[in-house]
Write a sequence for this structure.
């Protein structure tokens, strides 16, 4: 049966390497999102449309991954491109997404 799926709730925590980030919706951000490695927080601008919110969370997760790898200066075009392409690959290939997260 067709119908609109329930809105997925943004995760409140995200583990990246040894760090566990709190993920919060925030008002008054100058950008759509912010990854604060020092305080282990990912802030996402409150009220974004669902798809924009998802890509923004992934964008900030890419920043967190780069921090975990020891990179402190990030090229925003590369981070943004990776976030958009990762979402597209996972959405366009659901079997691949399930394969990636499957346990042994």
């Amino acid at each position: 049966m067709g119908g609109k799926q329930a809105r997925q709730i943004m995760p409140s925590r995200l583990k990246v390497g040894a760090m566990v980030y709190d993920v919060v919706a925030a008002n008054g951000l100058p950008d759509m999102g912010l990854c604060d490695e020092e305080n282990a927080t990912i802030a996402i601008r409150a009220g974004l449309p669902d798809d924009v919110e998802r890509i923004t969370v992934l964008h900030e997760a890419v920043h967190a991954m780069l921090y975990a790898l020891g990179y402190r200066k990030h090229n925003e075009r590369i981070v943004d491109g990776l976030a958009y392409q990762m979402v597209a690959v996972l959405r366009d290939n659901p079997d691949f997404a399930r394969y990636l997260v499957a346990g042994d």
Summary: The radius of gyration is 15 Å.
